[in-house]
Design brief:
The chain is mainly β. The chain folds into 4 domains: about 5-110, Phage tail proteins - horseshoe like beta roll fold; about 115-205, 3-Layer(bab) Sandwich (Phage tail protein beta-alpha-beta fold); about 215-235 and about 305-370, Phage tail proteins - horseshoe like beta roll fold (Roll); about 240-300, no CATH class. Helix content is about 15%, strand content about 40%. The chain is built from 6 helices and 21 strands.
């Protein structure tokens, strides 16, 4: 699209193919949003002549004759290829353009989790299969869409005995997978890539460790690579759940406070706020201690992020794509807010000659836990 950055758009039923130059020239704006805990979404805007055959092609793709149109969006930056989106179209809209001879076609869609939410498979049996095997089997149904299962076994391995119980699916594949994840404190999402046409289906614990992305710099003159960044500290957001656990032999009830720190989600701030609310988790009373602990840790993590940051950056100046669900460093904003953050969401905004990103960061407290961050 411009020096240093090229975009590839692939569209087609089931197996997408690169669009023609006529379609690519009609693209005026691309927006892709990736958010932790939610399905990713995209929006494409085309400026078309009112006599263009593309009107018919796109509108037919939204009807019953072609029930599923897949969209893959890929960008290449300085030789590095990033798959931003692999999803399906869900909505088409036409609005008048700025002049009488043209109109704007807006195509909206979601990632491939939408495909996993179409058919209700309630009642499908999974004899002698733990939750991990059930999830992997459901993901394999979508191998034709390039889904690669990454299923992390839970420490709470529970294999039901067929003569006693046969687990049966409730709802669509997406609903059932998320239900199984909630029971063990896991998350489920699709990560597009690593190559166009494939996506990694991750079912496992939320991970906030790893190699950080290059730092976001503010107020550092020539080294500044963000256009804006604002920070907030919410001391009222912090809660400490109380786990209600019943000892199975003596039937004695025990109340256990649950921290929001785990080996896979270590503290990113040295000074977290003091919790002011202590909600009771009562639905764990009859579960095993490991089951109850995993659910408690997952609920505690939901309120751990007291420090948040929002801002925007120019991808050309940053030198690469900032990715959600990973760590990133922040420099130049002061001792209280410098350090590592977890990237909760990223919105890509691509126009001809422009590529920017809006982002949202979070961590559990003030002051950095590391002496420095990667530049």
């Amino acid at each position: 699209m411009f020096d240093g950055i090229r975009m590839t758009l692939m569209i087609g039923p089931a197996v997408p193919i690169p669009v023609s130059q006529e379609v690519l020239d009609a693209v005026t704006e691309v927006q892709v949003t990736t958010t932790d805990g939610k399905a990713s979404g995209f929006q494409l805007k085309f400026t078309l002549s009112n006599k263009s055959p593309l009107h018919t092609i796109f509108l037919l793709s939204g009807g019953a004759q072609i029930p599923l149109i897949r969209v893959v969006i890929v960008v290449s930056i300085q030789g590095m290829t990033e798959v931003l989106m692999d999803g399906v179209m869900t909505d088409h809209r036409i609005t008048p353009g700025t002049d009488p001879g043209h109109s704007v076609l807006t195509v909206t869609g979601e990632d491939l989790t939408r495909v996993m939410d179409y058919i209700d498979f309630s009642g499908f049996p999974f004899p002698a299969m733990p939750a991990e095997a059930r999830v992997a089997l459901m993901i394999l149904k979508y191998a034709m869409f390039g889904l690669i299962p990454m299923v992390i076994p839970s420490i709470m391995l529970d294999v039901p005995i067929p003569v006693q119980q046969i687990p049966r699916q409730q709802g669509t594949d997406l609903c059932y997978i998320k239900t199984l994840a909630d029971k063990v404190g896991y998350v489920f999402y699709l990560e597009p890539g690593p190559v166009p046409g494939t996506s990694v289906a991750y079912w496992g614990p939320q991970i906030k460790v790893g190699v950080p992305q290059p730092a976001l710099n503010a107020g550092m003159d020539a080294h500044t690579n963000v256009e804006s960044i604002q920070f907030g500290f919410d001391s009222e957001h912090k809660v400490m759940p109380l786990l209600h656990y019943q000892e199975p032999i003596s039937k004695v009830s025990v109340i256990i406070p649950v921290p929001d720190v785990t080996p896979l989600s270590p503290p990113l701030g040295l000074i977290p706020p003091i919790p002011k609310r202590f909600p009771m988790i009562r639905e764990t009373a009859k579960l095993t201690f490991i089951q109850a602990t995993l659910i408690g840790l997952a609920k505690a993590a939901q309120s751990a992020d007291a420090v948040t940051a929002t801002g925007s950056l120019d991808v050309v100046r940053y030198g690469r794509v900032l990715k959600a669900r990973k760590l990133v460093g922040v420099r130049g904003v002061g001792m209280a807010f410098d350090g590592l953050y977890y990237v909760k969401s990223v919105t890509h905004k691509i126009k001809r000659g422009e590529y920017k990103q809006d982002f949202k960061l979070a961590r559990n407290g003030l002051l950095s836990t590391v002496p420095g961050v990667p530049a």
